[in-house]
Every structure is written in structure tokens, then in C-alpha cells.
Amino acid sequence: MKSTTKEINGFPFESYRHEEYTTEQMRHRSQEFYQWLNQRRTVRDFSNRPVPVDVINQIILAASTAPSGAHKQPWTFVVVTDAAVKKQIREAAEKEEYDSYHGRMSDEWIEDLKPLQTDWTKEFLETAPYLIVVFKKAYDIRHDGSKRNNYYVNESLGIACGFLLAAIHHAGLVALTHTPSPMNFLTKILKRPENERPFLLIPVGYGADETFVPKLTRKPLSEIVQYI
Questions:
Q1: Closest by CA position to 216, among listed 41, 9, 62, 61
Q2: Would residue 134 count as lying in a domain?
Q3: How far is CA 75 from CA 18, 53, 160, 165, 174, in A?
Q4: 76 pLDDT exceeds 80?
């Protein structure tokens, strides 16, 4: 089908048609995709094996296809490979995590974490070949230094990070969503501008030769969906 363009109130639009499938094809594709994605796990045992940087670039490009409020794309993906910087991040993260495990988190929270057997030590922050630190742009800065609003920033970043994790899994790599709290140290270490806030820290790489994950089950469909 030939692509066509037109203007609506002075703005360019282009024709779009998404590929459709038969009912049986839809059933097969949706089931196959679920079964594949259901194999994704959060991993804390990383190998330091190198990963081609162009793979990381393509993963980030996939994340950048996410929808965003007013198409403002309010994200920056900072990729950390330098060993000294990773060490700085680990030391700062472990300090915050130690404080969390020793007074910030409630007893119920600590109890809920027991099946995961996590603690404040985060060696994966140095082992994984890449740390992708996702920053949200609370606002944009015009060339004259004035502020320009962004919209639905957290929602936009959440969707983009979901795309990012799926792309990492699709590439045959593993990841962990790490959220040390507070995360302001990332802004300082990575020298980010005033309009950016750390949103998520994601180590990315191959799993270690011997990788273990908690034996968990996901909620069944009956517990997560309601049709009205």
C-alpha cells in the first residue's frame, strides 16, 4: 500500500496500517509471546563477559519506541561501562541499601523480601558489563535556558522501561531492576543536568555460568484480570 501524507491543522500526518492476523494466528502469536516472555527472570548472578555495544544501542532504541505524553520522550539512558564509575555507584548504592535494611524499611517489607534472599550487598553493580541508568526529564530546557513542560513523565518512563526489559530478554541477555532509595547519588556521580532525575538502575549482561533465581510463581489470570 502506497504511503500518503496530509496536513491536519498545519501538522504533517502519514498513513499507517498495522499488520493483521487471522483469529488462529492471533491466538498462536499471543500464546507464544506470553510463553517466551514468561521465561524472563530478574537475575543477580552476572557474568563479566563482554557484550557488543551495538546490541545495547539497539536495545535502547527499542525502548525509545515507547509511547510518551505529548510525544515528549522524556528520557535519557546513561550507559555506564567504566569500572571506576561502576565502583562509585556500587559504594553509594550499598550505603543507601544498608540504611534501608537497617531502619528505613518496615518489618513487613523485610519479611516480604525473605523469599528473594536479598541484602544490601550489590556486587552485580561491578560485575555486569553495562549499567543502564534511566533518567526521567522532569522538564526540558530550551536553548534560552527557560523550562518547557513534559507530561505523564513517570507513566512514560514506566512503559519505556518495560520495553527495555523485553528487548534485553529478546537479545538473550539478563537484567535486574535496581532501585536504591534515595537515588540522588546517581545524578551527582553521572553529572546529570538539573532537569533529570534517576528513575531506574538496570545492570545488563549475560547470566553467570551458575545462576540461581528464587523459585516463584506468578499470579494466575483469574487474580489479575476482571472483565466488566
A1: 41
A2: yes
A3: 26, 20, 9, 15, 22
A4: yes
The pLDDT confidence band at residue 181, using thresholds 50, 70 and 90, is: confident
Number of domains present in the structure of the chain: 1
DSSP H stretches of helix in 100-175: 107-113, 124-127, 153-170
Answer whether residue 2 is part of any domain: no
Q: What is the pLDDT of residues 27-56, one digit of tens each?
A: 999 999 999 999 999 999 999 999 999 999
Look up the pTM and report it: 0.94
Is 99 a domain residue? yes
Cα 180 to Cα 135: distance, rounded to the nearest angstrom: 14
Q: Would you say 213 and 42 are in contact if contact means Cβ atoms under 8 Å apart? A: yes
For residues 128-144, one letter each, b for 16 or more C-beta atoms within 10 angstroms of the residue's C-beta and e for the rest, the string is bbbbbbbbbbebeeeee
- Parent domain of 148: 43-208
DSSP secondary structure of 192-224: --TTEEEEEEEEEEPBPSS-------PPPHHHH
On whether residue 23 sits in a domain, the answer given is: no
Q: What CATH code is carried by the domain that includes residue 139?
A: 3.40.109.10
Helix H or strand E encompassing 139: strand 139-141
pLDDT of residue 3: 65
